[in-house]
Amino acid sequence: MTSEMKAGRPSMYIGGEWIDSASGETFDRISPVTGEVLASLPRANREDAQAAIDAANRARSHMASMPVFERAALCHAIADVLESKHKSMGEELSLEQGKPYREACDEILFAAELYRDAAENIKRLETSIVPSVDPNKRILTIRQPHGVVAIITPWNFPMGIPSEYLSAALATGNTVVWKPAPTSSIIAIRLVECFLEAGVPEGSVNLLFGEAEVGDEMVANPDTHAVGLTGSSAVGNAVAKRAGAKPLLLELGGNGPTIILDDADLERAIEGTAFGCYHNAGQICQSSERILTHSKVHDAVLEGLVEKTRSIRLGHPLDETTTMGPLNNEGVAKKMDEHLADALQKGATVVTGGRRAEGFPTALYYEPTVVDGVPPESLFNHEETFGPVAPVISTEDLDEAIAVANSCGLGLCCSVYTSNVSKAFYCAEQLECGVVNVNESAAYWDGRIPFGGYSGKGSGVGRLGGKETILSMTQLKSMVMDVRM
């Protein structure tokens, strides 16, 4: 961390300038790893949000008129910068977010690939010519940017998730007002610095930090034209109400069930399930939030999960032997406490872990935990926990497992382990999730997969991923031409 930032250098980027907040208020960014203050940063208010929106609108026509191949080259340039800086940025990401250094570096490289993917997708975006009943008419369609896109992103993947939105927004010619989570502010500054080094035009990306009032201004302001958000279901519902008729791309909470049938390859199932439980300390919207095992393989699955869990090395994320770091913030740790207490009160049993770890600089280091005998009515089964826990629920047959899986009000990602192709297709069609992974972890993530929530559940609207994000960041215009001579 530079001494400049620790001293409180202007760190919001609006209209091509690094500025302080209009109010002069600041907040301290405290590391979940060490408990130390990493930086003092400006706290925005509605006035700052309006300034960012105005700057984005001033830059709007320039970005929209930039040739497609020039925008594609810009995205490739951003990727080049990210790849060149991924090791140094990985250290900062680890200290601010809490994930192990190797995971942080991988995330930055993944983000770089998203800009490359957006660059290639925009060059190949095709539209249609529609037959007309009138022989003198020609109907064609084009895609154009929305204008100013309000983007609000979380802290769990503070480079990967913002880049899903930002790469597509820039590739399609939109301008952006971006509010990252306060607990991932420093790495957001680094990403904007990469944009500037790559040559992103002034005003096309505007960065500000703040709480709910800033996000509300961004979403509800008539001078923003579309909204992208990854966050909780509660926040997503509030944003949808405030946005009104604006186009929405909302990726919200999940509570991914993993179904392990009695004919599954148990070694593969245990490996993938454990990865989904503990990667990024379980702070993944598509993590293995609940494990529905067939009663015939319950004991073997439980034994395997316990073995995997006890092999995890909890520690400082910059230590090369660490495989899991601390949770990012107290809100997540508190939810772990509450969900665990609820399950125990309803008859579940902690097999290993089950508490905050002692002897660390902060109270955010949580023991990786396996809980058995989790009842279907528990919070583990109905709410997103977002922590390093493997809640095991025993089921007697396939239909019971599907019923328990679908009883949750969320429907983002899930996983099914079976060697029977008919059961695999049956599960994939019956499970109320936007993504179903077969013989693969629920947490499997490829930036090109259409990714989003199941209709009628609380996991979002629209689809991220590859071409789908490009489509979400554009509007379709029809052009009718009379060609009579």
Describe this structure in words.
- This protein has 485 residues and is of the alpha/beta class.
- It has 2 domains: 3-252 and 463-477, 3-Layer(aba) Sandwich (Aldehyde Dehydrogenase, Chain A, domain 1); 257-446, Aldehyde Dehydrogenase, Chain A, domain 2.
- 40% of the residues lie in helices and 20% in strands.
- The protein has helices at 3-6, 46-65, 68-97, 101-123, 160-171, 185-198, 212-220, 233-243, 266-278, 298-310, 330-345, 379-382, 398-406, 421-430, 467-472, and strands at 12-14, 17-19, 26-30, 37-42, 129-130, 137-145, 148-153, 175-180, 205-207, 226-230, 248-251, 257-260, 290-294, 349-352, 369-372, 389-395, 413-417, 435-438, 460-461, 474-482.
- It has a 7-stranded mixed beta sheet, sandwiched between helices. Strands 9-8-7-10-11-19 form a 6-stranded mixed beta sheet, with helices on both faces. A 3-stranded antiparallel beta sheet has the order 5-6-20.
- A hairpin with a 6-residue loop joins strand 5 and strand 6 (137-145).
- Residues 1-8 have low confidence and may be disordered.
